[in-house]
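User: Predict the complex.
Assistant: Input components as received:
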Amino acid sequence: MKKLTLIPPNNIIIMDAFWDRYVRLVKNIIIPYQWDILNDKLESVKPSHCIENFKIAAGRVDGEFYGAAFQDSDLSKWIEAVAFSLATHPDKELEKLVDEVVDLIEEAQQDDGYLNTYYTIKGLEYRFTNLREGHELYCAGHLMEAAVAYYKATGKHKLLNIAERFADLICDEFSEDKNSKGYPGHQEVEIGLIKLYEVTGKTHYLEQARLFIERRGEKPNYFMEEIKGPRFEQIFNEFTDYDLSYAQSHLPVREQMTAEGHAVRAVYMYSAMADLAAAYDDVSLLDACKVLWNNITHKRMYITGSIGSSGILERFTTDYDLPNNCNYSETCASIGLALFGRRMAQITGESAYYDVVERALYNTVLSGIAMDGKSFFYVNPLEVWPDNCLPRTSKEHVKPVRQKWFGVACCPPNVARTLASLGEYIYFNESNSIWVNLFISSEANVIINNQEVSISMQTNYPYDGYIRISSNCEKSTMGKLLLRIPDYINKYKVFVDGEQINEIIIKNGYCILELEFSNQIIELDFDISPRIVRANPFVKEDIGKVAIMKGPLVYCMEEVDNESNLPAYYIDSSSDLEEYYDKDLLGGTMVIQCQGKKVRQDEWDESKLYSERKINYEDKTLTFIPYPFWGNRKTGEMVVWIKE
Amino acid sequence: MKKLTLIPPNNIIIMDAFWDRYVRLVKNIIIPYQWDILNDKLESVKPSHCIENFKIAAGRVDGEFYGAAFQDSDLSKWIEAVAFSLATHPDKELEKLVDEVVDLIEEAQQDDGYLNTYYTIKGLEYRFTNLREGHELYCAGHLMEAAVAYYKATGKHKLLNIAERFADLICDEFSEDKNSKGYPGHQEVEIGLIKLYEVTGKTHYLEQARLFIERRGEKPNYFMEEIKGPRFEQIFNEFTDYDLSYAQSHLPVREQMTAEGHAVRAVYMYSAMADLAAAYDDVSLLDACKVLWNNITHKRMYITGSIGSSGILERFTTDYDLPNNCNYSETCASIGLALFGRRMAQITGESAYYDVVERALYNTVLSGIAMDGKSFFYVNPLEVWPDNCLPRTSKEHVKPVRQKWFGVACCPPNVARTLASLGEYIYFNESNSIWVNLFISSEANVIINNQEVSISMQTNYPYDGYIRISSNCEKSTMGKLLLRIPDYINKYKVFVDGEQINEIIIKNGYCILELEFSNQIIELDFDISPRIVRANPFVKEDIGKVAIMKGPLVYCMEEVDNESNLPAYYIDSSSDLEEYYDKDLLGGTMVIQCQGKKVRQDEWDESKLYSERKINYEDKTLTFIPYPFWGNRKTGEMVVWIKE
């Protein structure tokens, strides 16, 4: 089966009212800020030691490894973010910095290709002895992704060669005819190997990714066998009583009917499965992907496109178990969900996958980062009461304020590389067709019938439902433009060169236009009024509550715009949802207001925690802001689901 | 200040419709069942090794210590339960069993009085080197309580002597003029020492208890100093980053304004503080108790009289933070709260304390044990959805089914000793007065003006509000009968010898009757209709919800009497609460029903987790049973707070 292609990042430039502030952050703030952190230059932040670990492994300095076993991946994700940034915004100085880091990485690589500072420093005799915890293959995967991105952006081979040498060693160590039947404890190397295959054409990388996936759930279970090895040493206390479903190795992947275990591991694996299904034309593997996708998106996903209901082990729990104030909802897991969904859309051409991709990107991926680019949420709650987010309690993982950096710092560089690669999410392209998936103002160059077509999209989405797409081509050429009609759009109009299309052809959720790509203007006019959304009543936590959405954006109430004790508010769902643009708020945002009431607290006798007293209410205006922007002002309560 | 006295347990026999099934369980089921467990005789239960540890420490057999560092306390609590049982139900065989165990305990005691199997087996050189985790003083306290109870029940001195020898060693080790300024990491020894003082009159025990309390929060903090000792060895992983408030040693006790840390430790400490305030006439200490009591009961207590909102560290969190489905609410903590409240009532003579004692006993203490006496809740949730009580998730501490025994088995024997000592909770007595605190059918002998008066109480409480108390005395004597009027009673009548009292004198929540104690009959007629109760609106989790109570009993909905998805029910709080006695249900219980509605789930499209669809409802009858009886039938959902 074929996979619709992405537009290379250097062929697209984003210039969007909603996204620009974030995309600009990547280059101007996040990349230099994270570079300082990787180099332990920020006094206010706990040392990362990441570059230092490489220097020690390279023999440049003496010292001990410091940080998590997967610390190396932070540098790879940073390089990947830089690569995507360089693709659209060349910067000689920044490129030189990366080239120097690549030299350091090369020095830290072993003669046989092995590359991991944790095991190099701790003792190479332990390498590959603890796959379930060691994260060597995880770090390898991120290295490969970084190498591919940097090669694509700059054409430079050095990092690609480093990654290939390591990939060759991995293929050698874990190939079909070798003794080791191992596979990664944290999936990611599969994605890296597939990307490496895609740029080099070397099929053994693809085959190794397939092997890693097919081995999961085989009996006897590798993770239970490797702990008997003479050199096995446990790294993480919490894995003493290891649960095979944690890393999705409880069953062969085709037999997994529900999304289980650590959410990030899961969606990274599903993404690789989707790629492999396409590459090998493997229908049963694609079916497995669909089953898992449906389980997540129909039963285990928050309205914000986040996943992982349990703070302990950052994992999926059961169908419809979606607590709002003690969930995990890791930023990285939503990034992984977007990666998975994009691949499913590439393979199936169905827009429904993109409804979820868009939901994840606009809400949880963005909420993961502060508007100044310098602090981050790892956990993305849907309801917060700062006072009870205490250390050493059941809510200790929930932070009411974004943190500058984390001991386990996967999310910040992951957000950076995702924002830097946002262009890749907007379009698909194939022979004579262009798919428009996201509505983000941008300029792109696309190949239609072997001819370059410039596509320009102008919109104020999601604040406004009007989208103008113009094509420009030296020689006119016939082709198709497929416009995604999001599932939340009930009314819309389509115009071509000013003329409204009356008989709209919809297939797989895309409106299909047959066009001559030459100075044509396509206009989409979506009714994107704010709407009231409810959850399936099996979601116990949301019964009797509603959420406000506008397009893909989830809205929330913050204490700073309302009063404290947000759960005491009730919305009058028959009242109008009024919206207005406040140019001074949060750098300019659309605010929604509606009418409701609030429990009167002043009448209650404080000395009676429980009583027969009746409750009275007072009228209130409820004010909502977009969920991704919460926590950028005064610390306070926040709530997405409001009583109806 | 004086403390109203309790009636000795051998002077009271309970014969009560509501309680008898439990009290009988203690003697017939729980005591023999727990004896088998202590001796590792039950194959279906994880070994306790408790008796085996004593045999090893005594040198009778060889072996290693097994179990938690505080395993010894299980035996002491069992002995205490047996002692209370023997006080009212003499049993030669059972007494012989205890005497044999006492011999074993004596053999395990060191020459200098030290007695703890964990440290005796692990190495006595480590004793008292890790007070914050070691639990030696905690176990010592339970030994003292057991010894006092067994001495009172049987008049036998042997166990009392063992306890005194250990107490003398403790006083010697930790007295004012010794180097060690230590105090227990888990409070309990203070209660034991005070009880030992009360039966022996030896004031150095009382003084040592006072010292232990006064030292908490002193700077430098002992728990931070002792870890520097050459023999300090950490026992529990979770204490790596020790939080001083965990064991209430963050501040001097008089400066503690809020209940913090591990809930059981807290209420055991407050109980000792109350005792010490009375013994030393210490007003500031009593004031501290009042502040802490009010903080708990006005802001940090569940409607079921349970405490400890966080599963992690079993601790208090913040004011009004009372989540219903991931709370800890340990059975032992409610036992401790009842012990604290009873002492406060003894000192102040105020009935308000007993409103809480009664709430804790009728709800959480009872819910801690199955109706067959063989399985136990450690954690007492107010809302359960069995599917999501998964191991290795944020709800792993919540069990939808009572467990046979626990690795940390504090609760089962604690429930046993509490039920066995229930008689102690019913009355207070002083010179010419009797306080009636609980309404439990029983026969008691009380001393009024140095004369023995038989008091007989007959009631079907809490199912019925009618209480008949008759006194019988050889020679008539004048005195006072003080009848507690619970805070939930709005209407009631009082009769003396058939004549209604029109001008009722109420003081401190007690109705005071001046009586001639000679064949008099006092009748109380409470209106104890079921009622709808709401929580202070600052309790975010309960806003928009109500609970049903009848007298002190909290009611709950179980799936088995209703349907699944209990949070989808709404109560019509204007409908009548109808009650009926079902003699076949749960051994006979009062059931409450009322009208309401339920969200229609069948209309929802399963493939849409979130949509704009409106919600429809269907009419339903809601059925409630007493909270303490939940989980005694088919496993299923349970909920206390219902949407209004």
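Chain B has four domains: 20-250, 252-421, 426-526, 532-643.
Let me know if you want any component modeled separately.
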